[in-house]
């Protein structure tokens, strides 16, 4: 019987049967590899959370933009120079295309200039902490509670931010916003990967990753029409009210429920999924029991207290953990290195931010296609090699403007594509009971890399060629690290450490 609306059920069934023949994934056989249920969840959960995450994490560009200043009240009788600090200055005048920024709001210039960048550092520190905390919560207590907590916290903190009455209130709020960004990014991705069949994960990975750069493309529209920092923050906070719907609509991952032995609950979620995908709904609890019995022995199936030490539970997992963290660290440095040049190609922040988002969408789309065709491992190695060559070309003389522009564009696309591919690769390298902890640990190491990257970029004080050389060598190390990882293309997701 054909379905009225939604994805083509015959196609889903055909793909699913191929999956089962190859991987014996009974859950995919029961609910469908990628049907109307998965698409609706992706559109209502992955897309809004990823777009909002981009706004919250990157919005500092428009909250604290480059701002010129000049002292207007001083005891000096000589002419006052612009962008010059005077010890007895009582008042500054600011020149920017925005009505008001946090720089002009709290006089973040001269001896207080460091405080503008410190807010973004706190946000990244929040992402680092949130990756660990929400990764643990998601694996210990479930994807649904972890995602609900992070979404609710983001809703509250983003509405507090525009009404901050002091700099430190704003800065501390940015820290908590950073923790929520980590939670929604990690938990959403794991949930969507766990309800998608092996042969459809590349497409789902693309659907889950593209909304982030799409949010980066849309963000300048808010900034263009809301040119005050508090109006802008309020504007990008209002869409988060949609998160309230998740309390009623967000399901738990059936794979996580089965891994925890909650077979009745898993059967209910699988029944709902089968109904939406127009598949048979009978005996879903029996299917869950069958999956649980085939995963591991009875003792292992009771493992519901997984912790970060389980990431080293076997030799294979230990290798995967070390390599994954290393690659994410390298991506943190490489992504910043590629963006270093693109961020300097235009003095117009609206155009620059939107352009960077478009370039990332292109890179993510290309690597998603390559993951489907040649596999995760070869795609990661290829992206790293091209990124290395592109970054090395940035060492050419400044007069070769177009060469540097093209190489910078290619570097940004490859770095973004490699990041997107590694999200999917990492989710496939680890079992259900430790998947979010693995992604959280890897993401944490990535933030350390991104924090170190500015110091690498600062090597221009030693020699102009040093930063491009460093940003070229680092991706090569990433490509070599990939050689130690197994290929996961088309493989069923493991549930337990064993």
UniProtKB/TrEMBL annotation:
This is Major facilitator superfamily (MFS) profile domain-containing protein. CDD domains: MFS_SLC22. One of its GO terms (molecular function) is transmembrane transporter activity. The chain crosses the membrane at residues 118-138, 167-191, 203-226, 232-250, 317-338, 350-371, 378-397, 403-425, 463-485. PANTHER family: SOLUTE CARRIER FAMILY 22 MEMBER. Its main location: membrane. It holds the Pfam family Sugar_tr. Keywords: Membrane, Transmembrane, Transmembrane helix. It is a multi-pass membrane protein. It is found in: Membrane. One of its GO terms (cellular component) is membrane. It comes from Chrysodeixis includens (Soybean looper). Residues 59-490 form the Major facilitator superfamily (MFS) profile domain. It comes from the Eukaryota.
